């Protein structure tokens, strides 16, 4: 179980996240939604200790998540990645095994097999020697998903993974998410996509600096909740 307790983040006098508490069970795909500036990315970064929280904590199996980062695979927003860095598809995926093998040690046979299987699963093994910068947006996102798979983490967090990707990539990703759920993984997906893809999630978390609602789609995506989250009517969604 992943437990977030009273998590708050402030920047001087600005409150970015206000007393967020929520619980997530293994084998769940969780969609995190809300407006720009609503605290979605801030929440996961505070959980991971990437930014300092004013109050609260995140616990995985009863222990601080910040002490178990080897159990977390984090794929940041595309805007935070240097796509011009000269690195191959294979080496990006191999980064998922760095914690196990060590930064300056040669990858083990097991690590190489894990990376090969991960790249095959996302349909990118044939591109393993290609430069990351020469791939399409959807292909790049699949490579970073392969890196997360190779890590074999208990918690996977993907920040806006569907931005700029094609339908094939989106379908592959949701298929893999279902497989990981069957392995009792917990998956967080931060997204802006308020469409029929919502049906893929077991649980939704609607944020606007605080928890507006958490639960199944029909419980969360009501007109009142959307109005509270977005400060305006959002008529494109039916509860």
Characterise this structure:
The protein has 8 helices and 10 strands. It has a 6-stranded mixed beta sheet with strand order 6-7-8-3-9-10, sandwiched between helices. Strands 2-1-4-5 form a 4-stranded antiparallel beta sheet, with helices on one face. Helix content is 31%, strand content 25%. It is globular, with a radius of gyration of 18 Å. The chain has helices at 40-47, 89-94, 98-101, 109-121, 137-151, 167-182, 217-220, 223-230; strands at residues 2-11, 14-24, 28-33, 55-60, 63-64, 72-75, 155-159, 186-190, 203-207, 211-215.
Write the layout of secondary structure elements.
Blueprint: E1 2-11, E2 14-24, E3 28-33, H1 40-47, E4 55-60, E5 63-64, E6 72-75, H2 89-94, H3 98-101, H4 109-121, H5 137-151, E7 155-159, H6 167-182, E8 186-190, E9 203-207, E10 211-215, H7 217-220, H8 223-230
Parallel strand pairs: 3-8, 3-9, 6-7, 7-8
Antiparallel strand pairs: 1-2, 1-4, 4-5, 9-10
Helix pairs in contact: 4-5, 5-6
């Amino acid at each position: 179980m992943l437990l977030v307790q009273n998590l708050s983040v402030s920047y001087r006098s600005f409150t970015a996240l206000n007393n967020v508490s929520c619980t997530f069970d293994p084998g769940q795909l969780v969609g995190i939604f809300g407006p720009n500036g609503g605290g979605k990315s801030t929440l996961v970064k505070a959980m991971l200790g990437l930014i300092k929280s004013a109050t609260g904590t995140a616990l995985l199996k009863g222990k601080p998540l910040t002490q178990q980062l080897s159990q977390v695979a984090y794929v940041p927003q595309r805007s935070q990645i240097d796509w011009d860095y000269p690195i191959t598809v294979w080496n990006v995926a191999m980064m998922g095994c760095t914690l196990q093998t060590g930064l300056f040690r040669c990858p083990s046979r097991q690590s190489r097999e894990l990376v090969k299987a991960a790249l095959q699963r996302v349909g990118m093994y044939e591109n393993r020697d290609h430069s990351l910068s020469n791939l399409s947006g959807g292909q790049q996102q699949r490579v970073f998903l392969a890196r997360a798979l190779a890590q074999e983490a208990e918690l996977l967090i993907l920040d806006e993974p569907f931005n700029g990707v094609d339908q094939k990539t989106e379908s592959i990703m949701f298929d893999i998410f279902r497989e990981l759920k069957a392995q009792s993984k917990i998956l967080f997906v931060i997204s802006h996509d308020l469409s029929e893809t919502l049906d893929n999630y077991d649980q939704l978390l609607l944020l606007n600096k605080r928890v507006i609602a958490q639960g199944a789609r029909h419980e969360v995506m009501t007109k009142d909740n959307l109005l509270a989250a977005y400060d305006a009517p959002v008529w494109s969604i039916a509860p």
